[in-house]
Amino acid sequence: MIQTGDTLLAIAARTGVPVDRLIAVNSIKNPDVIIAGQSLQLDQSSTSTSATNASNASNASAGPAYTVKAGDTLSDIAQANHVNIDDMVKLNQLNNADQLTVGQQLRLPQQTNLVAAAIARPQPKQTAARANALQQRIIAQVQSVAGADAHVGFTATNLVTGERVAWHADDEFPSASVMKLPILVELERQISAGSLTWSDSLRAEARAMIGVSDNTAANQIAQAIHQQSVNDTMARLGLGGTRFLNLFDGGRTSANPGENETTPSNMAHLLELVATDQVVNSQVSGDIRSLLAQNADGSKLVRMLPPDARVAHKSGWYDGVANDVGIVTVDRVPTRWVIAVFTEKIHDAETGNQLIASISRTVYDAWAPSS
Hints:
Layout: H1 8-15, H2 19-25, H3 44-54, E1 62-67, H4 74-81, H5 85-92, E2 105-109, H6 115-119, H7 124-146, E3 151-158, E4 164-167, E5 173-174, H8 180-193, H9 200-211, H10 215-225, H11 227-236, E6 261-262, H12 264-275, H13 282-292, E7 309-318, E8 321-330, E9 335-344, H14 349-367
Antiparallel strand pairs: 1-2, 3-4, 3-9, 5-6, 7-8, 8-9
Helix pairs in contact: 4-13, 7-14, 8-10, 8-11, 8-13, 9-10
């Protein structure tokens, strides 16, 4: 029975049935609109399978399957899918957790760490009031740090409580290397569809494109998947503010920004799809999260966050522009949110970095308080 303030994500966390299965079993046309008092049919096959497999390992119930890819480690897989490594070892009866084989099938433990938060979520009026107060704090930060001439947009959505803050979220911004996230999504989509196949070199290029924002690797991938296919997929996902028009050039400046652009709301929504296993399927979405978790840029979203915040993100920057978008998970609460911050016409790179870091920390303090 749908309760007041419920979301599909909260119901999925509470029942252990993935969001995509809830949508399919109940023929839900708009996942954002569910009505309190109505009943949802649960996918009994998923829950019964989990219950059966649970007997094979203590403290670990079986969830979806994952196929090991070239370069995968158990740590990567666990982090990307937000599960415990020890539970994976027990569930799959692994004798040596350091030895995985490409093509090997692993069972993932059910994600149960959001259940408590889903049950204890605030009522809608409380949520709206908290989100409004948080939004005003962030706007004050922007105006204080960035200056009158800066163009700043941000949005963040708490995937457990449904809280959302936004400011200039639908404005168009130069994407810089954040565009490599849509490229990764399209690459993974084509591989899943069989148009391309993972190879060691392609896997290495994907890691370099996301991990260290390698322009050469990104351009090679873009040429393999074709630029227009990225735009077509973004349009199908309803992300029409995202346009990939030119390859990456290390000489980009505020005077020569290129034409690639997106919006904070577009990237936050794309990340929400990734976070909730709705980009192709849970395996593809998990692989995207795994790659984003390897981003080495700690100067923006990650900079001021405590160690208990796990961040899967993609940043971008050049003279006058600083952007970062990501999925933040804090198991201690437990909670998870997506966040996108874009800036342009900033005085210097460090100002942009500090502003993004400050906004990220303010959201953390609101949604993952220490006491």
